[in-house]
Amino acid sequence: MRKRWKALTVLAVVILLFVPAVERSLNPTVGSVLLIGTFSYAISLLFSAEIPAYRRWSTGYLALSGFHYVLVGLMGIGGFGLLTSGAWYHMISPGPLLAILAGAMHPSSFNLYKLNYWICPRSESGENWLSIFAILLGTTAVAAAIAMGRNKKLGFIAWIALLILPAFGALGYVLAELGKWGMPQYEGAKDYTTTTIALVWATSYFVAYAVAIKGVALWGRRSNP
C-alpha cells in the first residue's frame, strides 16, 4: 500500500512538472534535475525495501540512464533524425573519442587540431550504427542496474565495465576541446557546453555507482544492506 501511495505521488510530481505555468517558472536545469530525480525514484520503487533508500534511488538513476540511451537509439532507427541529433548533444557521444582513435591510427600524420570531430554522424548509415550502439549499451545498463537492485553481484561487476565507456567518452570531449571541433558550429568557437555536459554525466554515473555499491562486498561475503 505504501508503494502505491509513493507511486501516485511520483505521478503527481511528474504531471506538475509538465504544467505550463510550473514549467515556465522553473530554470531548465532545475526542471531537468527534478524530472530525473523523480523518475529515478519511481524506478527505485521496483526494488526490495530491504535495500537502503539511497542505494535504491542511485540504482534507479543508473537504470534511467540506460533507458535514456535505449530511447535515443530507437528514435534514431525510427527516422527521427533531427530529434536524435539534438539528443546526442545532451549525452555522451562516442564521436570525439572515435575521431581521436581514428587519427591515432596514423601516428605520422596525427594532428589533434585537424581531426574531424563529430557528435552525431552526418550519414544515414553512421546514424544507424550509432543508434544500434546506443540500444545495446542502454539495454546492458538497464539489465545490470536491475540486477544491482536485486543485490546480484554480476550487475555491480557489469556496471564497473560500463563506467569505462563514459570515462573515456568524456576524455574524448576534453581532448577535442583542446584541439578544435571539426563541425562548423564549433570550429574556433569558445563553446564548452557539450564538453561540460559530458563531464557532468560521466561524474554523475560514478557518484551514483559509488552510492549504489556502498555496503556491498563484491569480492567477499556480502555485507548487510
Question: What does this protein structure show overall?
Answer:
Helix content is 68%, strand content 0%. With 225 residues, the protein is an all-alpha fold. The chain has a domain at 66-212. Residues 184-188 have low confidence and may be disordered.
List the total number of helices.
9
Rounded Rg: 19 Å
Q: Residue ranges: pLDDT <50 for 5 or more in a row? A: 184-188
- Tally of DSSP β-strands: 0
> What's the helix-strand series?
HHHHHHHHH
Structural class: mainly alpha
Give the N-to-C terminal Cα separation.
Answer: 23 Å
Mean pLDDT: 85
Largest sheet, if any? none
Percent helix range: 55-70%
Shape: globular
| Strand content range | under 5%
Topology of this structure?
Blueprint (H helix, E strand, L loop, with lengths): L1 H16 L2 H6 L2 H17 L8 H25 L3 H8 L6 H10 L19 H26 L3 H26 L14 H20 L13
Keywords, please?
68% helix, 0% strand
Summarize the structure.
The chain is an all-alpha fold.
